[in-house]
């Protein structure tokens, strides 16, 4: 005799086999939630190199006779592939307006270099550009006139090479309050071979200026936020090294003035003056000191091997 319970089970299986829809009506197992796909951000566009700078050079009073070094510097910059034109300081505002119009039409870094009254002119043009919100990449004043104004905020890098005891020049130019750019000042009064009418003729300074201008399109990584202004009275037996500003570094165990100078390829006297220390000062680990830095690092070996320049060049250590 067949068990009635087995008959019920067999009947239910047969019913499901011939009518699959009944099985679909039963509750399905929940599916795992889909993981949302997060779109990756597009890669950052490559940094476009800046166009070559436009360089404006200005002679001082009676420039064709006394500022001939500016013409020689212009020739070297032109030979290096730059647009570098020389003007009389009496055309200052005319050339300033021309430079501003040129920038508005085709933006490119502006470099201003001037000797004596030409140095004053370089700062005047910087002030004109500031009113138009136009940046000035580099200003180099070479023994500018005493009447030269302070460096405005739109200047990214300012270098002053001067003689504080000069009657014809002697402009100890400082920056306006709140200036955040790179600043370096070099007083050469201790070098008896340097005068107002030969200070702009140094081949060594010319070489460094050409190097700096060459580096300008590639300096995005060197920010202004950490720039420390530098002011030096250059020893009489040294050449000028054109550092564009200083940077703070921590002193590590075992560091000395000499070891830090060797690591950063700068003279001990520069570190001493940057920090108001004596050259044999003892340093403390964790202490913060200012070290000068170059826009374009020099070839130390070449500098040491080079023979002393003949007068009226500025002599080097």
TrEMBL record:
The keyword Signal applies. InterPro entries: AB_hydrolase_fold (IPR029058), LysM (IPR018392), LysM_dom_sf (IPR036779). Keywords: Signal. Residues 247-291 form the LysM domain. The keyword Transport does not apply. Gene3D superfamilies: alpha/beta hydrolase, LysM domain. Residues 1-25 form the signal peptide. This is Peptidoglycan-binding protein LysM. The lineage of its organism: Bacteria, Pseudomonadati, Pseudomonadota, Alphaproteobacteria, Hyphomicrobiales.
